[in-house]
Amino acid sequence: MQFLLEHWRDGVEILILWIGIYQLYRTFRATRGASILVGIVMILAIVTSLAFLFQLKVIAWILTRAGLFGVFALVIIFQPELRSALAKLGSSKFFTFTKNQQLEFTGMLADSAIQLSKHRIGALFALERDISLQDHLETGVPLDAEFSPELAQSIFYPKAALHDGGMILAQNRVAAAGCVFPVSQREMSDRTLGLRHRAAIGLTEETDAVCVVVSEETGSISIAENGKLTRNLTDTEFREMLEGIFLPEQKQNDDDAEETLDSKDNRIDSSDRDLVSD
Ligand SMILES: Nc1ncnc2c1ncn2[C@@H]1O[C@H](COP(=O)(O)OP(=O)(O)OP(=O)(O)O)[C@@H](O)[C@H]1O
């Protein structure tokens, strides 16, 4: 009891630090700087342990003094992530969308891409996830507008001023249009793949964004994720894939419901067979 009374503050401190470090890790784990941070922490941990183990006083002294510069270095390395985290603090990133809002947005995006495809209007959408697309947003025209299929159609209409380039969707809103994305430099086996599709692959190689491409030439719809392009999706496949990415639970429920129906059908089928054989 005496021990608890004396040391409860230490426990609270450890808990606060643990929560803080875990939240930092969660914020940065999906970013490009995450591997750099892990590398720096590992090197620092090894060198510090060696310095204290072998009583290397000068190195230990340098490490303690270098800590301050280390903080500056981290601020510079994580500048894009910090900037977007601060911007999101002021906006609504911490506001999580309800399932219904997400379902509505995904449905609207699917409707929009299918409409564009029917009219053979070329389009490129990039959907921001954990990694900020701020750098790419700055290559285009910031909009911060509510998304609607009509707006997408007006923007990608071939004679419109912003039809060239990609549209960035962040927080279920149109963040910008006319943005230039990095074109994938990977050796493509398919030489028919033009710049719009390669830009979708390039952006999803560099970030965790998901891209939707509508081909002007063929009207086909493709989705790029993690640098992989899934092409020529039918309307149903496209809707299902979008749902699978943005509403995995919803998709799972739908699949389960379908499976239950299928198994019921199978049961009916087998009983029918019995009837026939009898
Ligand atoms: N780096 C880029 N970032 C964003 N959009 C781009 C980029 N490069 C090209 N685009 C868009 O792609 C259009 C050119 O597409 P291109 O015909 O080369 O590609 P594609 O993949 O064959 O597409 P489509 O099937 O629609 O013709 C440009 O008009 C421009 O709007």
Mean pLDDT: 82
From the spread of the alpha carbons, the general shape counts as: elongated
Q: Please indicate the percent range of residues in DSSP E strands (runs of 2 or more).
A: 5-15%
Small molecules (ligands, ions, cofactors) in the structure = adenosine-5'-triphosphate
Quaternary: single chain
Report the total helices: 10
- Coarse structural class: alpha+beta
The first-level CATH class name of the largest domain: Alpha Beta
Please give the order of strands in the largest beta sheet. 2-4-3-1-5-6-7
| Radius of gyration of CA atoms, rounded to a whole number | 26 Å
CATH superfamily of the largest domain: DNA integrity scanning protein, DisA, N-terminal domain
Q: What is the share of helical residues?
A: 55-70%
Q: What would the CATH topology of the largest domain be?
A: YojJ-like (1
The counted number of beta strands is 7
User: What is the H/E order?
Assistant: HHHHHEHEHEEHEEEHH
What does this protein structure show overall?
With 278 residues, the protein is an alpha+beta fold. It folds into 2 domains: 2-90, no CATH class; 99-246, YojJ-like (1 (3-Layer(aba) Sandwich). The protein is 60% helix and 14% strand. The chain contains 10 helices and 7 strands. The protein has a 7-stranded mixed sheet with strand order 2-4-3-1-5-6-7, with helices on both faces. Strand 5 (210-214) and strand 6 (221-225) form a beta hairpin. Helix 5 runs parallel beside helix 7 and helix 5 (99-118) packs antiparallel against helix 9 (235-246). The longest helix is centred in the last third of the chain and has 30 residues, at 248-277. The protein binds adenosine-5'-triphosphate. Adenosine-5'-triphosphate binds at residues 122, 124, 164-166, 180-181, 183, 194-197, 199, 215-217. This is Diadenylate cyclase. InterPro entries: C-di-AMP_synthase, CdaA, CdaA_N, DisA, DNA_integrity_DisA_N_sf, DNA_integrity_scan_DisA_N.
